[in-house]
Structure formats: C-alpha cells, structure tokens
Amino acid sequence: MIRLLSRTFEVPVSAADAWAFLADIDAWPRWAGHIRRIDVDPPGPAGPTTSGVIRLTNGITSTFRMTDFAPPTHWTWVGPFLWLSVRYDHRFEDLGDGRARLAWTLDAEGFGASVLGRLFAAIYARNLDRAIPRLQRLLGDRNGAPA
Asked: For residue range 7-27, what is the model confidence (pLDDT) as tens digits?
C-alpha cells in the first residue's frame, strides 16, 4: 500500500457535527462539485455495512464499500480504480473549541500503483482542493461562523 494523497484541514464545527454532516453521503454533491450523485446501500447515513456507487460529473462511476467504521473518529472505505485497490480514510478530531480537524488520506495497492495511482491522485487532488473550501464554507454557514 502506498500513500497517494493526504489532506488535513479544520472545519468550524465539532467533530461530532462534522461526522453527522459527512455521514450523509447522498448530500456530498452539495460541496463536492465533481460528484453528480452517490447511491448508497443501505439508504441513510454511513454505517459499518455501507457500500455504494459514486457517479462523477464526467460520467465515470466508482464503487466503494466500508471496511472500517469507528464513530466518531474515523471511517475507511475501499474501491477499485482499474487494477488498483484504493483506500479512502476519513478521520475526525475534536479540537475542543467548536472546531474539528479532518484528515483524509488516499492509499493504493495493486499493479501499477506507483504510476496509475499517482495519476489518479493528481486528478483527485484537484477535485479535493476545490471541494474542501466549499465544505468549510457550507459548515461555517450552518454554524453561523465564518469558515
């Protein structure tokens, strides 16, 4: 498994509130503009048996399944990309002042992980770099605080 990408950022809500907001996976297109729709099974908030299909605005679809679910600190899901197995880890740390630190990492293993994985990560990084500020603003608006 190689680390392809890591983003750590703060949000203007508690870790519990960030968890609750992000567990509503269906709503991710509100802040992640590259996502057209996410179909989750079973319907509802993220849980230990959640799996789904992410439909991107460019027409590509990606499947995922939850592999580690430890509320309120982290969840991990895994999905394929060509010959790779990609692990998406989402971590939540309460900072104790109505703010939280989120850490998202992307790891991959499989044939071509060092080449294909880096190409995938470069595209994914651009999407995240646009989505994270939107998420921070959206959470700030919900909390009545600037993001």
From this structure: 999 999 999 999 999 999 999
The reported pTM is 0.90
Relative to beta strand 51-56, strand 74-81 is unpaired
Here the tokens at position 25 are 């996976």
C-alpha–C-alpha distance, residues 113 and 109, integer Å: 5
Q: How far apart are CA 28 and CA 79, in angstroms?
A: 17
Name the residue range of residue 122's domain: 2-143
Whole-angstrom distance, CA of residue 45 vs CA of residue 37: 15
Which CATH number do you get for residue 118? 3.30.530.20
- CA 88 to chain centroid, in Å, comes to 7
Q: What is the rounded distance in angstroms from the CA atom of residue 16 to the CA atom of residue 140? A: 15
Task: Report whether 27 contacts 139 (CB < 8 A).
Answer: no
- What's the domain count of the chain? 1
